[in-house]
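If you are new to this repository, start here. Below is one unmodified record pulled from the training split, so you can see the exact layout before writing a loader.
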Amino acid sequence: MNSLVDRPLLGPDEIAQLIASGAVLASQVEGQINQRLNNGSNKAALLGGGTEFDDLRIFHFGDDPRKIDWRASARSQERLVRSYRSEFQQPLQLVVDRNSTMRFGTKKRLKVTQAARLSLWLAGIYHQQDYALGAFLLEQNATVFDSRVGDDWLNLLCEALVSPAPPSQNSAINWDAVLTQLVSDTPTGAKVILISDFRSLNSDHRALLTELSEKRSLSAFLISDPMERDPKALLGRDLIWGPKRFCVDGQESIARIHQAYSNRLLEIQDLMSLSGIPLIEVCSSLDQFTLSLLGGEYHE
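And here is the target side for that same chain:
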């Protein structure tokens, strides 16, 4: 890799920290997490305690010590626990926007980087709860990872979620195609989490959103940049996006930017509410994800 934009969005240490943080939270307050994010008429249809052995994985803080496989642990020199699954283990699909509008940031990080960080944290939560994890990466060549279990699969998903996202002028997301594919391919009772700035989503997509949420547990995270909410620091600067150029030359320009974002946020909030989908806004500059984030309050 020969430049900054060709490097992964996150390094190994931060990936491990985010996964571990989600796992610890899940072990402490599992019921509260599910209560805050669940929606959909069949949200628990596939979830079961399970009696079928699935895999061995490294023991994490909060795991039931009774599930430790002492013989396997002695052979590997690491403490391993046996994980089990029901015949119909509940899948989780992380739908992550990596398109051009997400490759933007004015303070700590790009929106696409924050989307990756949030995805890893959520993956840690639901891996700890023994969900089958999958991902749908929305970019020029969209990539789908079917829902599976196991540490090796989690590591593969992590690599994909943090893969390089260089500047791009690719076209807006075709939400009709994305939502139609999710309705077709995601089983009843699955959990689906949308992570995006939802720049090209509009009221025309309400029917598909509603259909998707009726038989699945669907929630959404809107990733925003600090300057979108409070653009005063842009005063006197030129904004350039592709062939477009906009000069922020006074308070009137600031007010227009702020009003445009406020209107857009209200539009997305109304759309999600009418579709029965909980929406949480997450600022790209937020460092620590905690349970309060899932309560719906804005965090910066």
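Two things worth knowing about this chain: Confidence is low (pLDDT under 50) at residues 40-50. The helical segments are 12-37, 70-76, 111-128, 151-161, 175-185, 206-214, 226-229, 251-274.
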